[in-house]
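User: I'm putting together a teaching handout on how sequence relates to shape, and I'd like one worked example. Could you take Cytoplasmic protein from Massilia cellulosiltytica, show the sequence you're using, and then write out its predicted structure as tokens right after it?

Assistant: Happy to. First the sequence, then the structure tokens directly below it.
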Amino acid sequence: MKPEHLTLLLTREMPYGKYKGRTIADLPGHYLGWFAREGFPKGELGELLALMYELDHNNLRSLLDPLKR
């Protein structure tokens, strides 16, 4: 993980799918879990989704709170 990825979770938007336009940090856990089961996309988007999945799965979303300010 790169430290700047945490900031990107709050600014990068999902480029496609049901949640298109929603920031990655705001994606619901069940959607992140679907990617974890089916496979994350390649590249930076996949890395960000995998990181957000780990934060959500381990109940660590609150780590992003200080970055939201």
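A couple of points you could highlight for students: The two ends are 22 Å apart (CA to CA). The first helix runs from residue 3 to 11.
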